Amino acid sequence: MMSIVTALLVVATVGLIASVLLTLAAHFLHVEEDEKAKQIRECLPGANCGACGFTGCDSYAKALADGGVKANLCIPGGADTAGKLSEVLGVAVEAGEAKVAFVHCNGNCEAAPKKMIYDGMHSCKTASMLYGGPNACRFGCVGCGDCAAVCSAHAICMQDGIAHVDSRACMGCGACEKACPKHLITLVPKGAKTVVMCSNTEKGATARKNCQNACIGCKKCELNCPQKAITVTNNLAAIDYATCNGCGACVELCPMHCLKTADFSA
Questions:
Q1: What domains, with CATH codes, occur in the chain?
Q2: In whole angstroms, what is the distance from residue 139 CA to residue 137 CA?
């Protein structure tokens, strides 16, 4: 009986000492929370997407509280977050341009043949290291879904061999853009009217051989664009989103149908 009582006393004593030490540590090691950073943090959406260039909303809030950082770096927050930050910071904050991720590839299973069967790690980055990937078009989507894996908004799915972005769910954080080893995904303005669904810079005949939907650099779009919003460089069309008015002339003229009228506003 005495051994049990002794054990209980030892445990109780250790517990009492530990509680006293923890109380003293909490008192002397306590770090005052930055109230300004806390207020700023409450303005941010909490997506922790990294679009601002920081590891998360907490880090961005602290940087804003310390000063010297632009207050319009939160792309997912948009105008709502900009308005809240204006009140807290006491300065005018203009929302950054709303953007959405777009996959510049239309090399689906039907259009782009395979040059080999890949049976390795299910990763676009890993597959691309082996002769540029399994597809005949070395510029096209590998289709393993590295972009979908890093999308915190679950806005990307793999369909018919290539990645597709749901513009309604996309936050424009750019995580997928960084993850794509082929650099097929870019952030385009939500107001973009026309997009190029190709990234192949090979000459027309070679590009056409490797993908039936590839841009062949024929320059019909460039020569017939009323706004002069399209240029063909290195065998690939590129659109000036600020100049393009979405007239659709290039879409109708493109023999490969790699130009598409876009509407990301919905």
A1: 35-89 (1.10.15), 99-261 (3.30.70.20)
A2: 5
